[in-house]
Amino acid sequence: MTTIRAALAAAADRLAAAGVESPDREACWLLAHLLGSSVGAVRVRSDSDLSVDDVRAFHALVARRERREPIQYILGTEEFLGLTFAVTPAVLIPRLDTETLVMEAVSRLQGRGPVRVADIGTGSGAIAVAAAHLLSQARVVGVDLSADALAVAAENAERNGVAQRVEFRQGDLLAPLGNERFDAILSNPPYIADDEVARLMPEVRDWEPRLALTPGPDGYTLYRRLSADAPAHLRTGGFLGVEVGIGQAEAVSQLMMEAGFLQVTVHPDTAGVDRAVFGVWGAVL
Predict the structure, then answer these.
(1) Tens of pLDDT along 228-253?
(2) Which of 6, 14, 148, 162 has its CA 20 to 30 A from that of 48?
(3) Distance between CA atoms of 242 and 278, rounded to whole angstroms?
(4) How many domains does the chain have?
(5) Final residue in a domain of this structure, among 34, 67, 100
């Protein structure tokens, strides 16, 4: 028989050899997921034996992670702003970086009563669902090109209790918004240029949807389109907020100002990196 302790040690060695940064922790996460248990409970039971079937299934999970498949896809979920989101290879995995965009938007919209928010390139629905959760009077529209991504987003709206206030539409950027106007348009668009993709970590480069990573040769393509087209869908005093990559904030700010946005501001993430750019349309808040 194989004990939990021995299985974890062997798995951690395999993951370390594969280049996984936190092999001990991730091995424990994988085994806890398999056993339907908490990490703490797994550690407490470290001298207990695993069944042959559990050992075989655990080896299979470890093999997936050895190939650098993101652990979030293996576990099937990721946390974002205190909420649990289903994730599949159809969607970008929600990241801490994006919390800056959501929290700045929420701080601007709180206390304004019923508001309408659009999330462009919604993916897993993380931005749309979190905004609806944090703004009890908000109605949110999430847009994505991918039908598979929208299915995941709809599941996440249900999972987090906001499905009645979040609507998902398929289409290219702002086109599905028709003639509607919103108090806020938010987006974490693809912003990595094609020639930079090869330098990404294997978990990102080889597994996350390329459509959600790069807009093509120019990482600013979608920022130009959003800056130019968002005003037609914003109420006076409404705002556009976008996540940006490292070193992009200044250029994206300039694009917004050239498009006529006022009070363009840049907001850092928890690591101090300029991560979100906001601009107000038609009046200064």
Answers:
(1) 999 999 999 999 999 999 999 999 99
(2) 14
(3) 7
(4) 2
(5) 67
The boundaries of the domain holding residue 12 are 2-67
Look at residues 217, 279, 213 and name the one whose alpha carbon lies nearest to residue 245: 213
Residue 59: count of CB within 10 angstroms of its CB = 13
Beta-carbon-side half-sphere exposure of residue 18 (alpha carbons within 13 Å): 24
Residue 16 in any domain: the answer is yes
pTM of the complete model:
0.94
Q: Which residue has the tokens 């039971």?
A: 45
